[in-house]
Design a protein that fits this description.
With about 80 residues, chain A is mostly helical. Chain A is about 60% helix and about 0% strand. Chain A is built from four helices and no strands. The mean pLDDT of chain A is about 80. Classes of the chains: A mainly alpha (about 80), B alpha/beta (about 450). Chain A: This is Carrier domain-containing protein.
Chain lengths: ~80, ~450
């Protein structure tokens, strides 16, 4: 999941991979809450899932590793519910 | 700074020709870190009565909020004419410079303009609401002494943001910027970016281009900006200085912002709406919602006046007008001008009906119907959610006011700026295309 997020961040938002480590936050990458929400939408498209409550689930202050973990949990929850 | 595409302007009046300024060094050295000896220096007579300052092209300007949406369009015009910029920014300088270059590219700056950032811009990391902007005494004085003008663009623009946070950034931040303008030995010109929405709860009539009494506000943002503007008026009077207050309305661009570049308010709104609606109408329905109509459209009632309007202005037109007014303020002989702050509405001559904005949103989401209603009995959960989620727009669905536009009319009459083009449907459609859909 972390690799997917890094791929989106680098390909969709044009960020140099050299800037990214697991402890990098979205804020560090100048990604605001809207950019973060866009990341979620791209992830939804890629995973074929609808992730609810994206507004409250993530903030620009979380690290990419934390976001990956949260996405993985949401994905598991969504899969279990379907 | 004539617009090359405009016919020859009328000659400037004698009072507007730059006079011999009081500045002994017309090409001041840029800020290069704190002065070794920041002791007091004799202060030149400022741009109050009886003085003039270098034109913008020969100036060094401190710009707060330099990486923001409006500032990027101002710098798009300032950098090519040679203006040197001290960018007052939150981020560390190397990151701020990258953000500034990105914002310029997003605003459509050609490569040669972006390249000027490295040579003409110096980033200084500040904390806007801290005493002396969070700088040491020496750093603060060195920045103040290095500039001919201060352009205060930084602001927190969350309409319904936390009142304390809005106060700290917008009011206390302005106080610190005023202190910077007061401290500079060149007595820098002050340009304060306020907002047309300091008019607050004045729903009808014509808002004048002068200081406004507080008469109720629709959002905490408006109140904070009104307080900030009052500080500027008080400062100019008590310091015996001239200042310029710009009150822009809602600024738009039909360009799709580059990823991570600053966006205009309505682009953010459109993006939020697209995210909110992305799963389609059936996913949004709840027990309290009206059913879809026969064509499968979902109606969302928005509480407002059916004839409400909003002033929307192309950001490039705003930037050109502001810089022309700034140029005038900078080069005007103020011998006979009493100190104080001059207010200019940076607005479109024609208000845009809110229904036209809604129609543009409906064109991008064909299954959506937005209805402006004066009363809304039993709002659905979805309608309440939209109120909350789209608060940046739903706060302004009851306005029918217009704005005095004397300053811009005069510039247009003298062909110093071109009147803005109509904000027509193609422009609105482009401005309201969510970035995600455009990319």
């Amino acid at each position: 999941m972390e690799a997917r997020i890094i791929a989106i961040v680098t390909e969709h938002f044009g960020i140099d991979p050299a800037e990214i480590t697991p402890t990098t936050t979205f804020e560090d990458l100048d990604m605001d809450s809207l950019a973060l929400a866009e990341t979620v939408v791209v992830l939804e498209d890629q995973l074929g899932l609808e992730l609810p409550e994206i507004e409250g689930a993530f903030s620009p202050a979380v690290t990419l590793a934390q976001a990956a973990e949260a996405f993985a949990q949401l994905r598991a929850t969504a899969a279990a519910a379907s | 700074m004539p617009d090359p595409e405009l016919p020859d302007p009328e000659p400037e009046s004698a009072s507007e020709v730059p006079g011999p300024g009081p500045n002994p060094d017309p090409r001041p050295a840029p800020y290069n870190g704190p002065a070794a000896s920041p002791g007091p220096e004799p202060r030149a007579p400022g741009p109050g009565p009886g003085s003039a300052t270098p034109a913008l092209a020969d100036s060094t300007i401190a710009v707060s909020g330099a990486t923001g949406f409006l500032a990027s369009y101002l710098l798009l015009h300032l950098l090519p004419q040679g203006t040197r910029v001290v960018a007052l920014v939150r981020k560390p300088p190397h990151r701020a410079m990258a953000s500034l270059a990105l914002a310029l590219r997003s605003a459509g700056a050609p490569a040669e303009t972006v390249q000027r950032v490295a040579h003409q811009v110096q980033a200084v990391q500040i904390t806007l609401d801290r005493p002396r902007l969070g700088l040491s005494e020496g750093e603060f004085q060195a920045v103040a002494d290095s500039v001919d003008a201060v352009l205060h663009c930084a602001a927190l623009t969350k309409l319904h943001g936390d009142a304390g946070e809005l106060h700290r950034t917008n009011v206390e931040g302005t106080r610190q910027i005023l202190a910077l303008a007061a401290a500079g030995r060149r007595a820098p010109q002050l340009f304060h970016v306020s907002t047309a929405f300091v008019a607050g709860a004045r729903l009808d009539g014509v808002v004048p281009e002068r200081q406004l009494e507080a008469s109720g506000f629709l959002t905490p943002y408006e109140e904070s900006k009104h307080r900030a503007e009052r500080l500027v008026h008080d400062w100019a009077r008590t310091q015996g200085r001239c200042a310029t207050v710009f009150r822009p309305s809602v600024l738009l661009s039909d360009r799709t912002a580059l990823p991570r570049a600053p966006q205009h308010t309505y682009a953010v709104l459109a993006a939020k709406l697209a995210l909110f609606l992305r799963h389609g109408p059936r996913a949004l329905l709840d027990a309290s919602s009206a059913p879809l109509d026969a064509t499968g459209r979902l109606t969302i009632r928005l509480l407002g006046a059916p004839d409400a309007s909003i002033n929307l202005l192309q950001v490039d037109a705003a930037a050109r007008a502001m810089l022309r007014l700034a140029e005038q303020a900078t080069t005007t002989d103020t011998s006979d001008v009493p100190p104080g702050a001059r207010v200019h509405h940076i607005v479109h001559p024609t208000e845009t009906p809110v229904t036209r904005v809604n129609e543009a949103l409906q064109r991008s989401v064909p299954w959506l119907r937005l209805a402006l209603v004066p009363e809304r009995p039993c709002p659905s959960g979805l309608e309440r959610a939209v109120d909350l989620y789209g608060a940046e727009a739903t706060a302004y669905l009851g306005l029918r006011r217009r704005y005095e536009r004397t300053s811009l009319c005069e510039l247009e009459r003298r062909r110093l700026v071109r009147p803005p083009a109509p904000v027509d449907n193609p422009y609105l459609d482009a401005a309201l295309t969510p970035p995600l859909m455009a990319r």
